[in-house]
Amino acid sequence: MVRSLWTAATGMIAQQTNIDNIANNLANVNTTGYKTEVNEFKSLLYQNLQQKTTTADGRPKPTGAQVGLGVRNASITALYGKQGPLLASEKDTNFAIDGKGFFPVQGSDGNTYYTRNGNFDWALGTNNSNVLTTSDGLPVLDTQGRAISLGSNYVVSRITVTSDGSICYPDERNVPQPLGIQIGLVQFNNPSGLERMDDSLYAESAASGRPINESNSTNVEKSRVLQKYLEGSNVQVVDEMVNMIVAQRAYEMNSKAITASDEMLQQANNLRR
Predict the structure, then answer these.
(1) Considering only 17-26, 152-161, 226-235, 264-273, which range has the smallest mean pLDDT?
(2) Shared-domain flag, residues 213 and 135
(3) Is residue 250 part of a domain?
(4) 3-state secondary structure of 55
(5) Which residue has the higher pLDDT, 200 or 51?
(6) What tens digit of pLDDT does each residue of 99-151 get?
(7) In terms of domains, do 220 and 249 share one?
(8) Same domain, 76 and 175
(9) Which pLDDT score is estimated for 125?
(10) Distance (Å, rounded) from C-alpha 100 to C-alpha 119?
(11) What is the dihedral of CA 94, 98, 99, 101, to 10 degrees?
């Protein structure tokens, strides 16, 4: 019975983490480029109560007796394979990714991070240059890993971007011409292995593998950049509410198991009276 107390306690702890994860999904239902995260569980150690043995007449028993010692959280995995809805925007510097790619950006610490949030802006850089940045002021990188910067002679409201990320500017006949700068797009062999940071950023990890530059790789399906669009969150509110009900009921059942174990211990203690 003491074993059941600790086993049920592990279930309550695991379901509490599950509820925390569901709450985070619901909190980010309107976060641009957010991917739904799923909590996964695994069982703890098993204790052998009886090894494989024989019956009273000598016949071998096919199985022994093992009892589980509870559950724990195995991982929290983001569902990158599901594209979020494409939301139209009037802003020229809003970009959505149709595909598996990520935008590379330069963090404040100088390291490269990755995001699906294409809510960008043109910021004033050195020598009055125009630098493409995130909403937090982090420079967006091109296919060469350099910050995207244009001279002060460019009117940023006239800049357009093609589906492959090429930045164009109109000539004398008002025909957009590529400037030889392309917004970077990278993919990962295992995007679920990316380390999740704040501000919708992801960091490369050993589990995710090295970033694959779409511009010079022929082994990946190219993503498309859509100007004046943003990728919405792929969180399904109805699914999250159902998952919350299931997690709440599982938490409640584990708490009842603790109550039942406590009552059985109380009955055992009363036997000596």
Answers:
(1) 264-273
(2) yes
(3) yes
(4) coil
(5) 200
(6) 999 999 999 999 999 999 999 999 988 888 899 999 999 999 999 999 999 98
(7) no
(8) no
(9) 83
(10) 17
(11) -10
Does 139 map to a domain?
Answer: yes
Beta bridge partners of residue 72, listed in sequence order = 42
Q: Any idea what DSSP says for residue 191? A: G
Hunting for tokens 């490269």 — which residue is that? Answer: 112
Joined together, the tokens standing for residue 11 give: 């279930």
Distance between CA atoms of residues 183 and 181, nearest Å: 7
Show the CA angle centred on residue 205, arms to residues 202 and 208, nearest 5°: 85
- Considering the domain architecture, whether residues 128 and 247 belong to the same structural domain is answered as no
Q: Answer yes or no: do 122 and 142 share one domain.
A: yes
**Residue 58 confidence (pLDDT):** 67
Count other C-beta atoms under 10 Å from residue 72's C-beta.
14
Rounded to the nearest integer, the mean pLDDT of the chain is 90
User: For residue 8, which of 267, 268, 251 has the smallest C-alpha distance?
Assistant: 251
Q: In what order do the strands lie in the sheet with 160-161?
A: 160-161, 166-170, 176-182
Q: Name residues whose C-beta falls within 8 Å of residue 206's C-beta, 6 or more positions apart in sequence.
A: 193
User: Residue 140 and residue 134: Cα distance in Å, rounded?
Assistant: 7
Six-digit token string for 131: 């630098």
Per the CB < 8 A criterion, the answer to whether 182 and 142 are in contact is yes
| Parent domain of 28 | 2-46+69-80+236-270
Residue 52 lies in a domain: no
Cα(116)–Cα(231) distance, integer angstroms = 8
Phi, psi dihedrals of residue 10, rounded to the nearest 5°: -65, -35
Nearest to 67 by CA among 51, 42, 49, 52: 49
Separation CA 215–CA 212 (nearest Å): 9
Share of the chain above pLDDT 90, in %: 68
Q: Is residue 209 part of a domain?
A: yes
95 with 133, same domain: the answer is yes
Contact 181/148 with Cβ under 8 angstroms? Answer: yes
The total of structural domains in the chain comes to: 2
